[in-house]
Structures are given as C-alpha cells and as structure tokens.
Amino acid sequence: MKMKFKYYIGVALAAVTMVGCSEEFLESEPTEFVSSTQLAEYSEDNPALQAGNVSGIYALMYEPETGGTTGHDDYGQKGYDVYSDMLSSDMVLGGLTYGWYSGIARMTATIDNTDNRNYIPWRYYYRIIFSANNVIGSLGGNDAVPETEEGRIYMGQAKAMRGYAYFYLAQFYSEGYNPSTPILPIYTDTQTNAQPLSPTSDVYDLIVSDLTDAVDLLDGWNRSGKEQVNKYVAEGLLAYAYAAMGDYASVLPLTEDIINNGGFVLTNAEQALGGFNTVTSPGWMWGMDLTENQGLNLVSWWGQMDIFTYSYAYVGDPKAIDLGLYNSIPDGDVRKDQFEIVEGFGANMPLPINKFYPEERELGGQRYISTDYVYMRVAEFYLLHAEAAAKTGDEATAQQYLAMLLEERVDDTSYVNGLSGQALENEIYLQTRVELWGEGKSYLAMKRNEATITRGSNHLLLAGESFNYNDERLSFEIPNSEIQNNPNID
Q1: How far, in Å, CA of 89 to CA of 83, rounded?
Q2: I need a labelling partner for 336 at 20 to 30 A (CA). Which of 24, 44, 134, 260 fits?
Q3: Is the pLDDT of residue 264 over 90?
Q4: Could you tell me if 66 and 127 are in contact, meaning their C-beta atoms sit under 8 angstroms apart?
C-alpha cells in the first residue's frame, strides 16, 4: 500500500539469490522484497539467510541518499550527528558558500515541516526500522527466541538497530521526555498500515524492550567487526535511553559493565590528537571500517567536516567549534590542541584539524574516503556513568569517573574533588561537550540535562542568542509528506 511504503524502503535481500527464485515466485510476488512469511520459512532451517539483511541495515548508516534525497547532507547517521551538533550550537557553520546546513544553523529548517531537513532523518530511521522488522519477522516475530545461536545473534542485532532508530527519532522529534505526549507512530512488523502517534512512554517502552532483548541475545558473542552491534554497544544505547527518561539508577550498572568488561580502552593523550580515523582505535566501540571500494567521496561526513578531504569544508563551508566552548578549555588540556585557527578559514574559527584528519593531512587531498566513521566510544560511558552517579547522589563515584577520563587530558585533576551538587553536574556536562565534540553526542546531553545553550561570538547566525533545550527550533517537525500520507496524523 502507498502509505506503508511511504514509511520504509527496505534493503534488497541477498537471501533471494541464495535460495533461488522460480518463475512462479516472481509472478506471484512482484515486489522488490521477499515477504517476511517467505523468508521466515527459509530462515527456520538456515538463519544465515539473514546475514545479507543485517549487513544491509548497517550499510544504511553510511550510504548516501538513505534519507530519500539527493542532498549532500543525506549520508546516514553521521549526517544527523552534524545536524544535532549544530542545533546544540557546539558546532559552528563557518561559511555559507554552498548552504547545505544554513537552514539548520539558522534554526529555520526545524520549524518548517516542508523543509527536507525534517524528512531526511524521519525517512532514514524508519527505513532502519522497516529493515529490522523484516529480520525480526523472518526469525519468528517480536516474541520469538530463535533456537539456534546464529538466529539469536541476528535477532539481537535487528532488535538493537530498531531500538537505536526509535531512540534517535524520539530525541529528534520531541522537545523533551514527557511520557504522555504523543510523538511517533510505532511499527513492529512490515505489514501494519499507517499508525497514529503513540505517547512517549510507549515509544520508550519499546526502545527499552528491544535493547534489553538485544543485550541478552548478544551476550557472549564475539563479533567479526566493529560495524556490528554487540552486547556492549546495545548496553550503551540502552544506557542513553534510560538517561533520556531520567532513570539514572538503571544507567549505572550498564555503563559499569561496559567500562569494566567491554575490553575498550580510554583514548590517551597521544590518541586524542591521532586523527579519530580508524576503527582499530582501542577506545572505539562502534564504527564503520571504510575503504575506497565503498565509493564515498564528496557526499560524506569527511567531506562535510574535514579540510583535508576534497569537499565542502575544504572549499568554503568549514565546521568549527563554538568559541565560548573553545575558550572554556584550559591551556594544557590536550583537547584544546585538537583545534587550530587556519589561515584563510576565519580568524575566530578553531577547526578540528588535529582531531579529525586522514593520514596524508594534505588540504583537499583525500578524494575517495578510506578513513573510518566512529559511532560510539567508551569515553562516552565514563562521562555518562559520572553523570548518573552525580544525579543519583553518589558524588564520590561521579568525581572518580570524571577524574579517570581527565587524567590523560589535563595535568591536574585535583579540582574535581572540590566539586559537588550542581557545580559537579555542570562540569560533567561541560566535559561531555568538550570530549565528544563533533561526534553527535552534545545534543543528547543537552536534552537530558535540560540545558540552556548560548551561541558564541563566532557563529555567523544567531551569535550570542540563548535557547532552552525544549525550544521548538531545537527539534524537528514531523515532515509534511508524512502528514499528507498518514490519515491518522493531524
């Protein structure tokens, strides 16, 4: 039906070629998809048929145009990391030559539901959801626990990705966590027609359920690459969901498990200036190992962010750190050295040329992308653990974990022991913004801390203005095309 396919465009199923297609099948099922019923029949005996589907979900995270447009800001999860970093105001659009992010930087796109910036993330995340639902349905449905280990691993990854997608939708398309406010339509299979908006509480119930199931299903599995969600990545997503709900007591055991048992190592001082360009980094939990064979170039996160890549940042629209945030980093903190003023790119535009760069470090030199994408780092969970401890009254633990993060970044962490109450919470929030600048996490921290942000003087647009976390300009509108095609949304 038109309404149903409006929400989701699934990935082509590699399983089709593995099981064979008869002429009768092609005539009776003239669609681009193998139905869940058919694939479930095949997958019952051979769960490996889901390998292509699950890989296809991960491919959506980095491929261009997965948000349904040909725009050069439509390139998967890292594109929405840029959207959110700009909306949080920690990232400055340092030029208006090409205009790809001008509506976001002006905060006008987010209040005009006919603007494609509202449609692109909506379509992308619901496409992830459709693809995950296809896998889940093929393995027996939402309540099933596959009998084979292989089936459980595929089910766990699919549920984790569905939880991931609904979490980001809930963050982007609401002004904060209000359990009774209707925010999103929920789909847990590929057959359901257009649905009304469900309340926030129902959306988060599904997120928590999916990610909890994923943690259990993926327990003990050793993945083959960091592009795959394992137990610890699922725990990280679940911790973020609980934090967004204000349930910080549930955050603590998850972040503690990641830190103590995940096998990830905090980025040290040398690695903090090491390029953030390879999934082999011991602190990376989730990321994509990109090669030139994948064909990414102009339309990519590196193209939009990095002046050493031949694309927009290099030729006119650099991305800089907010000057107020930059000035809050003390001299001697290694993370201040991640940024430099570069001649020709603006006198007040500290660029992240020592945080994000390819090995060659030649201006405009990287043409086809071979540097990797980072989605999640273990540093996030030292900070989130500290935040959760502070908000649940355990200030000693909060100080301990904050100091553990800072030991490789500053010469003296003793000041942390003197912080308490709101001052401690404020410092954790500040360090979260500094540590994770450019990684798409400041927006999540702004929402859950109910922060007020003030733009620094180097913003080309709205400089010096302040915004509350629930300002309507800081979240996206349900796109006009969704309203037109879904009779259950007014």
Answers
A1: 10
A2: 260
A3: yes
A4: yes
Residues 6 or more apart in contact with residue 329 via CB below 8 angstroms:
335, 336, 434
Identity of the amino acid at 84:
S
- Spatial contact of 402 and 427, defined as CB atoms under 8 Å apart: yes
User: Which tokens go with 99?
Assistant: 């205009």
452-485 residue pLDDT tens: 999 999 999 999 999 999 999 999 999 999 999 9
What's the CA gap between 171 and 177, in Å, rounded?
Answer: 8
What is the per-residue pLDDT across 387-442, written as a single tens digit (0 to 9) for each?
999 999 999 999 999 999 999 999 999 999 999 999 999 999 999 999 999 999 99
- Give yes or no for residue 35 having a pLDDT over 80: no
How far apart (Å, rounded) are the C-alpha atoms in residues 240 and 381?
9
Radius of gyration (C-alpha) of the chain in whole angstroms:
22
Residue ranges of alpha helices (H) inside 107-263 are 116-138, 149-172, 200-218, 231-245, 248-261
Neighbours of 488 (CB within 10 A): 11
pLDDT over threshold 50, residue 123:
yes
Distances, alpha carbon 453 to alpha carbons 43, 437, 465, in Å: 50, 15, 8
The greatest distance separating any two alpha carbons of the chain, rounded to the nearest whole angstrom, comes to 74
User: What stretches of 20-73 adopt beta strand conformation (E)?
Assistant: none
